[in-house]
């Protein structure tokens, strides 16, 4: 790919999230003469307007490409070392772009949280990607970078303290301020629509190991109703994004050669507090989850204001539990709203990390954490407002 004109092409740059990615690259890398990037979308006029609005240089290249026009996608992909795609739902608009990247050996990163489609793409294109040199990296936003790397980070600490990885890790959302993206809501709806049309997809959707072809691990917690967790001293409610994050964490474990073991158990929930209030809050979370994919859900292209994005944040707790009950805990925190402000920084840094820091990662379909590991953590801490910290040393064995 050394003949490519651009290191990165932002595909979908006129959409809400795509604009934020373009804005981040324009601001954060404006003095970096070594990063050549371009913006792609369906309308030259809209691209020009976005380029000017986000403060990108006037000579930033604009590429007209449409997800429904294969020739335009191939022409775009042929100019790029890596394509950042923010054009979802991916099961509706992503098939031809994936195929074009795989065919040309071009790297690709996206924000996909659609496990059924991801599995279909892996099954269809993995061998061809390995042959062409393409590195396809799904889920490079809030789903599932902080969660995947949170599990990785706490397991590093578990190895140090326990002398072995933990076969049980809990991911718990302690705080999250910010709105669900319209794209996430649309992706969930598209997935449910696809499953309704083809009931054979239900098995993939419900399988915790949907993204680990050829491997099935132990039974996993369902996490589908409020429960009181003694070791957390808190009620816990179902977490809407666990459906994709848990699948990516298991895939990551497989891609890295099972450093967490083959009997690894992992789940995610939202901590809602103790007592009657905590229980009531857990039930409110359940109701809110249903609302987020209902008729009042945000539409693709809709999103929070700049002030709302900058006032957002998230705080994720990771608990690795040894067989004797000892625990190590780690936190992953982000400084913007998860669905937009933080996500746009994460996917940008994933693309740059893939190109600059991990050129030796082999071709194929990857999770960001498995492909980039410590190098991605370092880059996210230095550039994207994330922090990874060990929070509590091993406690005494549970009595």
Quote the average pLDDT: 93
Percentage of residues in strands? 15-25%
Broad shape: globular
Poorly predicted ranges (pLDDT <50, ≥5 residues)? none
Order of helices and strands: EHEHEHEHHEHEHEHHEEHEHHEEHEHE
Q: Which strand order spans the largest sheet, edge to edge or round the barrel?
A: 3-2-1-4-5-6-13
Class based on secondary structure composition and strand pairing: alpha/beta
**Biggest sheet record:** 7 strands, parallel
Number of helices: 14
First and last CA, distance: 58 Å
Structure write-up:
The structure is a single chain. This protein is an alpha/beta fold and 399 residues long. It has helices spanning 16-28, 44-53, 70-77, 90-93, 95-104, 115-132, 145-162, 182-197, 201-206, 242-255, 275-292, 306-311, 338-357, 368-383, and strands spanning 6-11, 37-41, 61-64, 80-85, 107-110, 135-137, 168-177, 227-229, 234-238, 265-273, 313-321, 327-334, 364-366, 386-392. A 7-stranded parallel β-sheet has the order 3-2-1-4-5-6-13, sandwiched between helices. 44% of the residues lie in helices and 21% in strands.
């Amino acid at each position: 790919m050394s003949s490519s004109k651009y290191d990165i092409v932002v595909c979908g740059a006129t959409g809400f999230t795509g604009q934020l990615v373009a804005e981040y690259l324009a601001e954060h890398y404006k003095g970096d003469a070594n990063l050549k990037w371009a913006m792609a979308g369906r309308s030259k006029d809209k691209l020009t307007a976005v380029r000017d609005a986000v403060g990108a240089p006037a000579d930033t290249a604009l590429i007209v490409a449409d997800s429904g026009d294969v020739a335009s996608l191939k022409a775009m992909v042929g100019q790029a070392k890596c394509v950042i795609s923010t054009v979802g739902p991916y099961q509706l608009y992503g098939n031809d772009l994936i195929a074009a990247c795989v065919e040309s050996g071009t790297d690709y990163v996206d924000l996909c949280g659609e496990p059924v489609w991801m599995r279909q793409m892996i099954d269809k294109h993995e061998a061809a990607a390995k042959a062409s040199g393409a590195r396809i990296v799904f889920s490079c936003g809030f789903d599932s970078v902080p969660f995947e790397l949170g599990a990785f980070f706490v397991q590093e600490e578990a190895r140090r303290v326990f002398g072995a990885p933990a076969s049980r890790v809990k991911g718990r959302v302690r705080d999250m301020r910010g709105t669900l993206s319209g794209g996430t809501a649309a992706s969930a709806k598209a997935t449910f629509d696809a499953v309704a049309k083809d009931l054979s997809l239900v098995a993939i959707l419900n399988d915790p190991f949907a993204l680990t072809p050829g491997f099935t691990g132990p039974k996993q917690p369902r996490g589908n109703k409020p429960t009181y967790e003694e070791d957390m001293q808190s009620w816990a409610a179902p977490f809407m994004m666990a459906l994709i994050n848990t699948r990516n964490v298991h895939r990551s474990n497989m891609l890295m050669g099972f450093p967490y073991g083959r009997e690894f158990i992992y789940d995610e929930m939202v901590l809602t507090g103790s007592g009657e209030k905590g229980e009531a809050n857990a039930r409110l979370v359940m109701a809110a989850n249903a609302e987020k994919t209902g008729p009042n859900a945000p539409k693709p292209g809709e999103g929070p204001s700049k002030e709302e994005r900058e006032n957002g944040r998230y705080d994720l707790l990771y608990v690795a539990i040894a067989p004797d009950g000892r625990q190590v805990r780690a936190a992953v925190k982000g400084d913007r709203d998860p669905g937009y402000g933080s996500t746009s920084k994460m996917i940008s840094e994933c693309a740059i990390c893939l190109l600059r820091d991990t050129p030796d990662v082999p071709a194929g379909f990857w999770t960001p954490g498995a492909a980039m590991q410590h190098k991605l953590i370092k880059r996210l801490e230095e550039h994207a407002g994330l922090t990874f910290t060990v929070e509590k040393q091993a406690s005494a064995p549970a009595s």
